[in-house]
Design brief:
This protein has one helix and two strands, in the order E-E-H. By secondary structure, the chain is mainly alpha-helical. It is rod-shaped, with a radius of gyration of 63 Å. Residues about 20-30 have low confidence and may be disordered. Keywords: Coiled coil.
């Protein structure tokens, strides 16, 4: 075998020496290792990029979560205010309903009293008309009697009551 010498890492090596053969495999292994390191570096860079994206996504999602939570809290407080307003309105409605029923009862009573008074007025008017008609007829008779007396020169009988 020929003795060939290589300079490796600043040292001279015999290629037939068993250490060199191991080193030669080592060189091959180192080449693979460099390729693996390169691939690993790419993977690491990709993972770091993904971590940054996920971190940004997490930050964005946290921000969205906080915004949504604040919105939910605001909506819940608005809902509670509306429920409070609704309860107050229901109380007011119940109170006004009771007031309405009371006033409606008073109105019915007033209508009944009005109808009674109207009936009394109607009866009074009828009585007035009857009395007026009766007085008219009485005056007519009296006037007729006076005219007769005046025409016939009749004097009144003192024993008869005056009309």
């Amino acid at each position: 075998m020929a003795k060939t010498k290589y300079i490796i890492n600043g040292t001279t090596a015999n290629i037939n020496h068993p250490k060199f053969l191991i080193m030669q495999g080592g060189f091959k292994h180192e080449a693979k290792e460099d390729k693996i390191k390169e691939c690993n570096q790419e993977i690491i860079e990709e993972l770091e990029k993904n971590i940054k994206e996920y971190s940004n996504d997490i930050t964005t999602n946290d921000s969205k979560y906080n915004t949504n939570r604040e919105s939910i809290e605001y909506i819940t407080s608005q809902k509670n205010e509306l429920l409070s307003d609704k309860a107050e309105m229901e109380r007011d409605l119940l109170q006004k309903s009771e007031e309405y029923e009371r006033l409606e009862g008073q109105l019915k009573e007033m209508k009944r009293e009005y109808d009674e008074k109207k009936d009394q007025v109607t009866k009074t008017e009828e009585l007035f008309v009857n009395l007026s008609y009766g007085l008219y007829r009485t005056n007519e008779v009296v006037d007729t009697g006076r005219s007769y007396k005046a025409k016939n020169n009749v004097t009144r009988d003192a024993s008869r009551p005056r009309l």
